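2024-03-11 09:14:02 INFO receiving multi-entity request
2024-03-11 09:14:02 INFO entity count = two
2024-03-11 09:14:03 INFO echoing inputs for audit
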Amino acid sequence: MTVDIARGLLAGGSERYEKHLPDLAGVYRDDEAYADAVARDDGEPVYWVESSTPETGRGALTIGLSVLRPGRVGDEFAMTRGHLHAQSEFAELYYGVAGSGVMLLESVEGESRALPIAPGVVVHVPGGWIHRSVNVGDDTLVTLFTYATEAGQDYGIIADAGGMRQLVVADGTDWTTRPNPDHGGYRA
Amino acid sequence: MTVDIARGLLAGGSERYEKHLPDLAGVYRDDEAYADAVARDDGEPVYWVESSTPETGRGALTIGLSVLRPGRVGDEFAMTRGHLHAQSEFAELYYGVAGSGVMLLESVEGESRALPIAPGVVVHVPGGWIHRSVNVGDDTLVTLFTYATEAGQDYGIIADAGGMRQLVVADGTDWTTRPNPDHGGYRA
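2024-03-11 09:21:47 INFO inference complete, emitting structure
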């Protein structure tokens, strides 16, 4: 398999899913800005994931490419839904291929970390940590990832909590984090 | 952690091992060429691995950088020892960062594959496959890898078999494979 950086494709991968802005209701905190963005939407996907799962069961790895277009909704930068692994003890690797982003990591217990990701940067997502990619740059953010296939994904944990604890927001020409006023804590 | 391509370092990694040419007795088939190479050796490592194992146990990932200097011993290109995972059902990811190489993959049952690896190329090593990196270029081969920490390594399986089934050798200005006359089959 080969990463096609310019087009954001994993040549030789076998699975693809994409998310359009209307799929992301509830992800951004500013409802009015989100409604405006949907009204102005160009219909292109805002992010997509191409991946390959050559084997299943114990020991198998899913390998993929996450591609996130730049943008903002209110003061929040474009982001993926984020997830915890369904078998939460499984770690994940992300490797920056193109663009400028932040990996937002939060433990169920209450810790938060915002790790910059750029070409050449390796991010280790420890077991038990909820994580999402955020594009804080002007270009498409492309990251390579791999995780144990049996780990699975729990996408509901963030929605059920009213979003992640921290938001990644614009701060002049840079980014910062601020607490999410809607966050009600993660279910244990 | 950040990959320093020019220096072949994983900044922020915590473990490192290196191999010098005299450590590789028995790896190359041409004893005379190996003895000559050792006699002319500059004392620098021929390859090294920098890695990080932030967690242990089920679900943990070891992430690292494999750095292999170019060279030849007889007609064989510079290579790593290679290994099977001690828990052989565990897969591994390699991602090409710099240089030009081949990932040589062999199943215990008798299949061989030689997959080119270069910047942007993803190689999936399936569970149950013995694998080694070979540098077929003029520059240092740098690959990022990750595997489940609990997978472990079995380095003995190749030595016990008299080397891998196939050799990666020079063919004019290119590379090819030829059968290893010393290979006696892998133990089941």
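2024-03-11 09:21:48 INFO post-check: The helical segments of chain B are 31-39, 156-160.
2024-03-11 09:21:48 INFO post-check: The two ends of chain B are 38 Å apart (CA to CA).
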